[in-house]
Design a protein that fits this description.
- The chain is α/β, with parallel strands linked by helices.
- The chain has 2 domains: about 10-80 and about 115-205, 3-Layer(aba) Sandwich (Rossmann fold), CATH 3.40.50.1100; about 90-115 and about 215-390, Rossmann fold (3-Layer(aba) Sandwich), CATH 3.40.50.
- The chain is about 35% helix and about 15% strand.
- It contains 14 helices and 13 strands.
- Helix 9 (about 245-260) links the parallel strand 10 (about 240) and strand 11.
- The longest helix is centred in the middle third of the chain and has 16 residues, at about 245-260.
- The protein starts with 9 loop residues before the first strand and ends with a helix.
- It binds pyridoxal-5'-phosphate.
- The site of pyridoxal-5'-phosphate (PLP) has 18 residues, from helix 9.
């Protein structure tokens, strides 16, 4: 038996607001009590028997090293493309330029499919298929589409993604190449969510939209596990996270609680900061107003597709995490996102996605406002690779004729 089963200690799923408990071994979307998110809960007493710091560090397998605290029970249902265990990059030239000597980057763009959406989809797809799903459906502003398509293909099930028609082309093509059905909608991600729910209703498909099932958060929480491990079983002072639906923030916060219960870390927490564009900043506005929930943002507009989320189902969980951690929320001017993408690339930080660039663009603002200190240990999430965003408008060189006689003049003019 041992070889067929993971060491998962999943005990029940619980309404994030209602606190009602449900059987976790049935395929479930949102909380029947209030339509909000269900969160997975584990038998942590049992988990700590086999899950020790040394044991987890000695294991291989990316995020699946944390199997006691993941929901998949049958080993054959673990669908992996190599996600997780991404590098935490030490401060470099960009850190010095920004005057932040303790600035680390969690390089999530090194995940399969080029973004951290891989973490959530790896776990959600594995678990949904284990519980009997054969057709998975999701709305996506960008990277979730490609990640769902890739993992559904790996698991051998059908996928349908619903995207705004102006979603980045790279994401659309990735989903199609992986064999997903792509529906392009003349609307925003929230409209796509409604159409995705209709697709599920009519086809019997299972909705894996952000926070509409319990397990994408479980994949994303491994970000928090890795941070603690990366910092020698402590946590950094500050986390800066480009926020759309907020699964990563919610997941990390949950991870910290689980790690503390296991005795891996103490009760101190990083100050958690959400970054959004000033063209779509519902969480920032709600944070500043002291509201518990965020009003939908009208006419949401930003080139950073992954954070163009006018209304997040987990708004209350995001806001609670920001407040309880002593963090905050920053809206960066849209123009600064695009210029930071190029600035970061030219200062050795690699070719970042626009979402990642938004997070970096928040740093000078946070410094100016006295929200961060130059000596603090700050982690910025590089959530996706630059080539997945719409390309920047950089002028390309004219094509050189394939005439060696003309080359010397060209080389001389460099
Ligand atoms: C989806 C996405 C985000 C936002 O993540 P959430 O967990 O939904 O807040 C940020 N960056 C990239 C590249 C994304 O694809």
């Amino acid at each position: 038996m041992g070889r067929d089963l993971t060491a998962s200690t999943l005990a029940f799923v619980e309404g994030a607001l209602s606190k009602k408990r449900y059987d976790p071994d049935q395929l479930r979307g949102t909380d029947p009590a209030d339509g909000r998110t269900l969160l997975a809960r584990y038998d942590l007493e049992r988990a700590r028997i086999s899950l020790t710091k040394d044991a987890v560090t000695a294991r291989r397998g990316g995020l699946w090293r944390w199997e006691e605290l993941l929901p998949v029970r049958g080993r054959r249902f673990v669908t992996t493309l190599g996600e997780g265990s991404t590098p935490l990059l030490p401060p470099g030239r960009l850190s010095r330029k920004l005057g932040l000597d303790g600035l680390h980057t969690k390089a999530e763009s090194t995940n399969p499919t080029g973004s951290f959406k891989a973490r959530g989809m790896a776990v959600a797809v594995s678990r949904a298929v284990e519980l009997g799903a054969t057709h998975l459906v999701a709305p996506s502003a960008g990277n979730a589409a490609g990640a769902l398509a890739a993992y559904a293909s790996a698991a051998g099930v059908e996928a349908t993604v619903v995207m705004p028609a102006d979603a980045p082309l790279a994401n659309q093509l990735e989903a199609l190449a992986c064999g997903a059905r792509l529906i392009l909608l003349d609307g925003l991600i929230s409209d796509c969510g409604k159409l995705a729910r209709l697709v599920c209703e009519k086809t019997g498909g299972f909705d894996v939209a952000t926070l509409r099932e319990p397990y994408r958060v479980e994949g994303k929480k491994t970000l928090g596990f890795e941070l603690a491990e990366d910092f020698g079983w402590s946590l950094p002072d500050v986390v800066v996270y480009p926020t759309g639906g907020g699964t990563g923030l919610i997941g990390m916060w949950k991870a910290f609680e689980e790690l503390q219960a296991l005795g891996f870390i103490d009760s101190s927490r990083p100050r958690m900061f959400s970054v959004q564009s000033d063209g779509c900043a519902p969480i920032v506005r709600a944070f500043e107003q002291g509201a518990a929930f965020a009003e939908p943002w009208p006419r949401a507009a930003t080139q950073a597709a992954g954070i163009r989320v006018p209304s997040a189902l987990g708004d209350h969980l995001i806001l609670e995490c920001l407040r309880r951690s002593g963090g905050g929320a920053i809206a960066v001017p849209e123009a600064e996102i695009v210029s930071m993408q190029v600035y970061a690339a030219r200062n050795g930080a690699g070719y970042l996605s626009l979402e990642s660039a938004a997070a970096f663009a928040a740093l000078p603002i946070m410094r100016e406002q006295g929200l961060i200190d130059m000596a603090e240990r700050i982690v910025v999430f590089d959530t996706g690779a630059g080539f997945k965003s719409e390309p920047p408008s950089i002028e390309r060189p004219t094509v050189v004729a394939n005439d060696p006689g003309a080359w010397e003049a060209i080389v001389a003019a460099l």
